[in-house]
Amino acid sequence: MADTAKGSVEFLHGVRKFRYHAVTGVAINRKLVDGRPLRNLHKQGQQVHLVGLNFPVTVSWYYLKRNNGKLEKRFVLSTRPIKASTLKWWGKRRWQIEGWFKTAKQ
Length: 106
What we know:
Blueprint: H1 3-17, E1 23-26, E2 46-48, E3 57-65, E4 71-78, H2 84-105
Antiparallel strand pairs: 1-4, 2-3, 3-4
């Protein structure tokens, strides 16, 4: 497992240990326990088991429009079951806020 994936797994386990829930971005190449990559999911809002996690997560995705006009598929997960539309909204909002801070730091 890559260092970034290992770090995100540790983060999610830590969040769950304190009985909190998290909504976070996830890499498109993360693997499900059955060996399939995350990008092969077809239904948004599914509860899936990712490699390294001992609890199910809800996964959804949205398309982020890049500066060059192309769309990039972004995955977002929640450690608690929520609707796909809510998860997508929170995920988009999260990236907007991070983008604003990144721009403000420059």
